[in-house]
Amino acid sequence: QVQLVESGGGLVQAGGSLRLSCVASGDALSRIQMAWFRQAPGKERDVVATIRWKEGSTYYADSVKGRFTISRDNAKNTVYLQMNSLKPEDTAVYYCAAFYDYRPVTLLTSYDYWGQGTQVTVSS
Question: Measured between alpha carbons, how far is 57 from 90 in angstroms, rounded to an integer?
Answer without folding.
Answer: 23
